[in-house]
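Deliverable D4.2, example record:
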Amino acid sequence: MKKQKIVNDPVHGFISIRSPLAYEVIEHPYFQRLRSVKQLGLTHLVYPGACHTRFQHALGAMHLMGQAVEALRYKGHDVSRDEADAAECAMLLHDIGHGPFSHALEFSIVGKVAHEDVSAAMMRELNREMGGKLDLTLAIFGNCYPKNFLHQLVSSQLDVDRLDYLCRDSYFSGVVEGAVGIARIIKMLEVVDDELVVEAKGIHSVEKFLIARHLMYWQVYLHKAVIAAEQLLVNIFARAKALVQRGAPLTADEPLLFFLKQDFDAAGMDNSLALRYFVRLTDSDVDCAVKSWCASPDRALSLLCQMLTARKLPKVEIRSKKFARKRIDELRQKAALLLGLSAGEAAHFAQASVLINRAYSPTGDPIKLLQSNGELRDIYEDSDMLSAAAFRRETTKHFLCYPKEVERIY
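Output generated by the structure prediction step:
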């Protein structure tokens, strides 16, 4: 690369791509695919502006990693150019394993495989193609490198991934409660005994970050209508998989049909054929399939797809207590009667599950504050804000979704 490339980002301004390695990664088809994967799945059905992509987020996270490394270098910490380049590439690739609509279909297309495992498999394949240029990136990403703080910048309770997605999701959704003072937090980062910490005077900025994360979960990520839309999409793919696996003909692009016919585990994603099909999957494959399945001869699949394409979302009830089995069964019986479905088919139309929100965990990789006397203290001990009930424990709520029309049946 003869000169640095510059990207104009609406959240961070001008992002410079100085590293030839980072540029090579960005130009690869694996990474370019992220242009066609929405960051927030179906959230645009609630917040119309939330159509930003994983591509934008990955570039933003890379940019913040570069700023964090420079801040630590300024304070005298040794980070070589190769280490900095590898850390930036780790941020470019940390979400490369996301499938269509990101978290909404994370366990519906491939199987019970987290996107982190798919990312790792894709990074290994990419490293083989690039002749081992990503060895250091893989070591940092997998927490196998001696400088632990570099991995903490990639993945921890105060990593650059979270810093970018909170501000980015806030910006595009228009939910101002997610805005975070990124620059202040990055300037307050320190390293003590190979551990990433925050200078004590940055406590209020970190508190704001944790509160913003808590609010964004309830207002955006776990919004009732978002949950309703995502549940519809999950049920569509559950039904489609059941049909395909028992031999029913279903129209879809070859990569999507490949995953509908079988499930994979994390080890299976190292299969080159599975990866070759996965990297061809984008949101448009799902959009086209759902539109096509609206005319499916299978009534359950057809109705589910018509509900989603017309944004005829199910009703969602959220409460702190678990819903009674009797209530769920009654709703399924009503759905079967209303829609002309069998009991098994109606199960796709009335479902209960849980929502979990934990903005901060004091027990896992805690955020530590560096006091002026050199002492390290968990932010949970020093913060008045984090004494609130929302931060003392994991908040679990139960939800029940079903077609609105069933309420009219007595």
